[in-house]
Amino acid sequence: MSRLFGSVRSRATLGATLVVAVALVAAGTAVLLSLRANLTGEAGTRAERSAQAVASELAVRTPLDKLSGLDAEDAPVQIVDEDGTLVAASEDLERITGTGTAEVTPAPTGPAGGDARDDDGDDARDDRADDSGRSQGDSGRSDDDDDDDPLAPGEIDRGTTFVNGSATVDGDTEDYRFAAVEVETPDRGRLTVHAGAPLAAEHSAVDTALTAMLIGFPLLLGVVAAVTWLVTGRALRPVEGIRREMAAITASEDLGRRVPEPATHDEVARLARTTNATLTALEASVERQRRFVADASHELRSPIASLRTQLEVAAAHPELLDLDGAVEDTVRLQNLAADLLLLARLDAGERPAGTRVDLAALAREGAAGRAGVTVDAESVEVSGSPGQLGRVLGNLLDNAARHARARVTVTVRREGAWAVLAVADDGEGVAEADRERIFERFVRLDAARSRDDGGAGLGLAIARDVAVRHGGTLTAGAAPAGGALFELRLPLAGADRGTPRS
Known about the structure:
Blueprint (H helix, E strand, L loop, with lengths): L7 H52 L17 E5 L4 E4 L3 E5 L23 H10 L24 E15 L2 E14 L3 E10 L1 H53 L14 H50 L6 H25 L7 E4 H9 L5 E5 L3 E4 L1 H18 L4 E8 L2 E8 L25 H4 L4 H11 L3 E6 L5 E8 L11
Helix pairs in contact: 1-3, 4-5, 5-9, 6-7, 7-9
């Protein structure tokens, strides 16, 4: 079960189905309540009309046995006086609830044709008129409650009270909506007419709607779940293709393979393109690492082999020991190991220290003791590692010294929020096509030059890596004197870093 709902497809289908289910239940409940309210209101309107009709007949002195509303089979009627005594009821009414009195048989009437007045009828009627402000209840009234004003003889109260109840007529029991209307009769005082309208239509309509919902909602939810499952599966199909290809790449260790890219412009297509870009960068990084290891092995082999040869000769013939050559090979080996170690730290993402460094002082210190090197520097401070920045300057000066005819110039200046350290020589310069390639590791443009004179080809690569780690750039160009010009651009200490000019 956990595996089933552990997939995005399953969770999306379940989530969509639950959301639709909640919406359907809420909408269905609202529809049922609205339908019930409307149908109940219609039944109340019919009941009110029936009660008003009987009250109108009572208001014009119609005898109780002549009331037409008592003959309706689907509208049970009760007429009660102010004391709650039943004075008239529908024919065949056997039982009734909800109207305030459960009586179905009228009380016996007096000899004057059912007139229950006192001997001084007018005075009794006036007394009842004084008490006519009584209300039968506040719930369900259709108009404002104005029972505080007494009704005149023949007047019908505008307020109507509604209640739900049940009644049994001629053996059939049903639920009814009852309306209660008060009328002030000229001969019988205040009477209340209770008339009912059946709620069978309301119950039938609500039951039919509920049955349709109980049948239709599960079918609709099934359709929603199926459609969501299919659509989600179709949308995730490219993702599964990417996953399978990545698994194959991991198993084969072939970084030259690429995941399939859908011919769309959605998130999955962007994921595939980003994955392929990552694989390309990873492949280039691994290839660069392989070349680095191979080149490093090749560069280390020469000084080690030379040193070993000298030591073996010295062991056999001590008088032939070339001590200066052995020391020189050892120094070359030490410098190469230091360069490789620094490159490894830079590749690992080592961040430079945040020390303030004065490039002018650094330039004068680096040029001290070097023949033919002049310095023209203004004081500018950058933030970084003094040792690494000094290494950059040293590498640039060593490179310039190897190619200069007679003069090397070091300048330090400020350009906006950037500090610029430039090293220029008066040599042959660097061809424009090679100005980027010279910053690659183990690259020597002068193939005829010996390793003893040219080094291992790591100096400029280290210098550029250090510049990048310090948030700057290192570029090669043409010097005014016709030689090579190397410019190191670094952000000033405390300045916002923008985009340095190349």
